[in-house]
Write a structure and sequence with these properties.
48% strand, 496 residues, three-stranded antiparallel sheet, 5 helices, 8% helix, single chain, mainly beta
């Protein structure tokens, strides 16, 4: 019945579409997509990565999607928006998905959003980048309350030379049932449910109208609270960390947990914190093309925050012609996560009975893994860069990252054949050495690529047709190949 409801909504949106243009309008889009694999046990990597979690690793899958929404207009003194976005799916983690459901309001420069909304990584090309390291757009949206200045706003008394954007949010993960079903009570792993989410960002930018623009900032996120189910001494145990009013403050301003927290949170910080330092350097040429270089220095604890993890991070360069050329946009990125602040972690506080009290090593950061939380994931997909293989690919129910020490190269190219035809090429090569605590005897590797072509006919306003083929070669994802199709219709259903 739920899938039938989505189909009825989709047909209704198309029948009541309107081409009337207005500043305030309620819009819709409806689409159907299918992925068919030629070989392999998984769908090709680029048919899964950075699709807001609306993708499946299963080799054959499909969905039908319908959404109605109202956008906010930037710069208005007061405005509001919202969306309902529903999906019926086959071969996915669930047959019915509420992809987006949110309401938002803005007054002057202040913004408030409540609900589940799709977000991409900060200031990276969502179509060509490999994705951010804290939040990439690879996992499903998390229901949350988000408050702040969502768009860059001039800082007072600087005449536009300093602009700022910032926000904080608190939310709740929605994948408890999925994790229980996938976990299968694997005694080599553990399961944590009823987990809360927190993120905060602060970015500064120089004057955007000038040829050379510098943007710097940081973002942090955390998991906190929850119930951990684990196997020890031939029996299952549950460790509970209740969420209280003080819990929200302890993740906003990181501090140690109290007696109701896990032992690790009492020794270090309450919750699982991670984040990144970011910088973007952009130059605008007289012909309106742009050249941009950027880095995102990831950290999983204080040692990484102090950049004791060497060259670990995402490094990228992008050139955009700002025209509909055959090659309009190129992105090249290098990702490294092999240092992790060194190979050894030793803290005397972890072993109070040890005679070694004057030695301290802060390495083996074990990116995206944690002693209490199974991994930095939502619905099995990494919330950070998908170049680190998501636990959803672990077919044995193991919910942790098994390959987080990686070197990777990523290339993205987009352009136009004709006015109605555009394309996108994505390709990557990566090697993995397992994790700091569970290294692998033989290095795993993978080469992945995708060619995607979109046809947007001028005579059929609002319609677009997409086809893509992709493949993987190697030992990290095995060898996979497949073909995908998508048909989309957009339009307006009400203007006022």
């Amino acid at each position: 019945m739920k899938i039938q409801f989505v189909i009825v909504c989709t047909l209704s949106f198309i029948l009541f579409s309107s081409n009337i243009q207005s500043e305030n309008r309620i819009e819709y889009f409806a689409e159907t997509a299918a992925n068919v694999s030629f070989c392999g046990t998984n769908a090709p990597y680029y048919h899964v990565a950075n699709r807001q979690g609306l993708a499946s690793i299963e080799p054959n899958n499909a969905y039908l999607r319908a959404a109605v929404y109202k956008k906010m207009t930037p710069g208005k003194r007061f405005d509001y928006g919202g969306a309902i976005d529903l999906v019926g799916a086959l071969g996915h983690s669930s047959p019915f998905i509420v992809q987006q459901a949110y309401a938002e309001v803005q007054y002057r420069c202040l913004d408030l959003m409540v609900g589940s909304k799709e977000y991409w990584s900060e200031m990276k090309n969502p179509q060509l980048s490999s994705g951010g390291m804290v939040w990439s757009g690879n996992a499903r949206p998390i229901p949350q309350v988000r408050l702040g200045i969502f768009d860059f706003t001039e800082f007072p008394w600087t005449n536009g030379w300093l602009q700022v954007k910032l926000d904080i949010s608190f939310g709740r993960f929605t994948d408890d049932r999925y994790l229980r079903n996938e976990f299968g009570y694997n005694p080599n792993s553990f399961l944590t449910t009823k987990v809360y989410y927190h993120q905060k960002k602060l970015f500064f930018r120089s004057k955007e109208s000038k040829p050379f623009i510098v943007t710097i900032g940081a973002e942090m996120a955390a998991q906190f609270g929850g119930e951990k189910l684990y196997y020890s001494n031939n029996e299952w145990h549950i460790e509970k960390v209740p969420v209280k009013a003080s819990s929200f403050w302890n993740v906003l301003i990181p501090g140690k947990g109290d007696e109701t927290s896990s032992m690790g949170d009492q020794a270090y910080f309450y919750g699982n914190h991670l984040g990144s330092w970011n910088a973007i350097f952009e130059y605008k040429f007289k012909n309106k093309s742009r050249l941009k270089g950027y880095f995102e220095w990831y950290f999983d604890d204080a040692s990484g925050m102090g950049k004791l993890n060497g060259w670990d991070g995402l490094w990228g360069i992008e050139y955009n012609t700002n025209k509909k050329d055959f090659v309009s946009n190129i992105v090249f990125e290098y990702l490294q996560t092999t240092n992790q602040s060194g190979p050894i972690h030793w803290s005397p506080d972890d072993f109070p009975n040890s005679s070694i009290r004057d030695a301290h090593a802060t390495g083996a950061d074990d990116y995206y893994n944690n002693f209490f939380y199974a991994g930095w994931t939502h619905w099995g997909m990494t919330m950070g860069t998908p170049l680190l293989r998501s636990p959803a690919y672990n077919r044995d129910g193991y919910l942790r990252f098994t390959n987080n020490r990686v070197q990777a190269f990523h290339l993205g190219i987009s352009g136009y054949f004709l006015q109605e035809w555009d394309y996108r090429i994505l390709a990557s090569y990566r090697r993995s050495w397992g994790t700091p605590f569970i290294p692998i005897p033989k290095v795993l590797y993978s080469t992945s690529a995708m060619l995607e072509i979109t046809y947007t006919p001028l005579k059929l306003k609002g319609w677009s047709f997409l086809a893509s083929c992709a493949f993987d070669i190697g030992t990290l994802y095995d060898s996979n190949s497949g073909f995908a199709l998508r048909i989309r219709k957009t339009g307006s259903i009400l203007t006022y």
